[in-house]
Amino acid sequence: MVLGSGPVSAGGGTKAILAALAANAGIALAKFVGFAITGASSMLAEAVHSVADTSNQGLLLLGQRTSKRRATKEHPFGFGRDRYFYSFIVALMLFTLGSAFAIYEGIHKLQHPEPLTTPIVAVIILVVAIGLEGYSFRTAIVESRKIKGDVSWWGFIRQSRTPELPVVLLEDAGALLGLVFALFGVGLSVLTGDPYWDAIGTLMIGALLGVIAIILIIEMKSLLIGEGATPPELDRISAAIVGGRVQRLIHIRTQYLGPDELLVAAKIALEPGLPLTDVAAEIDAAEARIREAVKAAGLIYLEPDLDRTPSTA
């Protein structure tokens, strides 16, 4: 699996976030107007969903900004994980404002069904919204492909250390499917004259958002706790360490301090009897090789030691 050879610029993620922000803000307003005219619960659920998504994109932008703060004595490794924190908040908002509200509204409409008025307005708004969400989703795909490499899309969502693009990808995919579900509910309500279908569409939207939110919560929690280098990155780092008078890698630990900065700590075996100046030179050379192999390796701590591997002779 290859996710890309170096750290990811925030520019691609920012472009995808801004595209989603603009699309969701306009769509949310249109959906609220549609709900006011038609009374369709699926339209209300989708409107709240779009409001949540718009707020989420604002939080992602905030996380990108606050993560750039300089390191302090209290936070000597900087604030790179702010991007993980705000992405985790986004997942919680998607679950509470999106999923929980849609399920509540769907159950309410099942218990108290109401006929739709002027449903053609809802259909037009939903079709236009699908087009706008499609543009946002396409932007997220284009930006994600720049760093995805040859891994699958599911693998990218699971293993990417850059939180914004997987979040926007899942949000946009959920928004598109949610619009289809809303169109399904409104359409069947019109064709059958039964408003229960509108409530069913609303429940489908709630279930969809719940699944997406749970996936994001699990992934962002993992990043917040701290994830190490990906297997391909770890292989490249391990190979880069050995060279010159570095005989072998004894053990290594890695952790992402933020999407663009990887901490590398390792104990390395050097040739015995090296002068202190040569030890320092070998460590410097190994650090340079690591940074060349993995651009995200910003903090590197190498501890020299002797090779105490038992002889097999």
From TrEMBL:
Signal peptide, first to last residue: none
GO CC terms in record: membrane
Annotated SUPFAM superfamilies: Cation efflux protein transmembrane domain-like
Membrane topology: Multi-pass membrane protein
Species for this entry: Actinophytocola oryzae
Protein name according to UniProt: Cation diffusion facilitator family transporter
Stored InterPro entries: Cation_efflux (IPR002524), Cation_efflux_TM (IPR058533), Cation_efflux_TMD_sf (IPR027469), SLC30A9 (IPR040177)
Keywords associated with the record: Membrane, Transmembrane, Transmembrane helix, Transport
